[in-house]
Design a protein that fits this description.
The structure is a single chain. By secondary structure, the chain is of the alpha+beta class. The chain has one domain: predicted glycosyltransferase like domains (Thrombin, subunit H, Beta Barrel). Helices cover 16% and strands 38% of the residues. Strands 1-2-5-4-3 form a 5-stranded antiparallel sheet, with helices on one face. It is extended and about 60 Å long. The termini are far apart.
């Protein structure tokens, strides 16, 4: 069998010689929300994330769904053993008014 018969690609690949922006592949990770404030969250995770990495966090606070953009600011090893080996401190990025109201309302009800 010749080399071309075993190739499943429909077209030829072309190498990129020039500088291009870094690409990011979407990755999903399950984290546990440990605490929340008006400026950010503390998460427990089985895997570390790089400081400066941004991610979409989807959770519920009380009965309210919340989807926000966070930036990882701190990564520490957990004091506990098990699947949540890391603590991630994350700051909210460009929090919209509706999300801000949900968080503030939740924090008021917990006080």
């Amino acid at each position: 069998m010749n080399q071309h018969a075993s190739d499943r690609r429909r077209g030829a690949r072309v190498a990129i010689d020039r500088d291009i922006p870094e690409l990011t592949l979407p990755v999903s990770a399950t984290v546990q929300l440990l605490d929340i404030s008006e400026s950010g969250v503390l998460l427990a995770s089985s895997q570390p994330l790089d400081v400066g990495r941004r991610a979409q966090l989807r959770t519920r606070i009380g009965a309210e769904p919340l989807t926000v953009l966070v930036e990882i600011r701190r990564v520490l090893p957990s004091q506990r053993h098990g699947p949540a080996a890391y603590r991630l401190g994350a700051e909210f990025v460009n929090l919209d008014e509706e999300s801000r109201r949900k968080i503030e309302g939740f924090l008021r009800r917990q006080a």
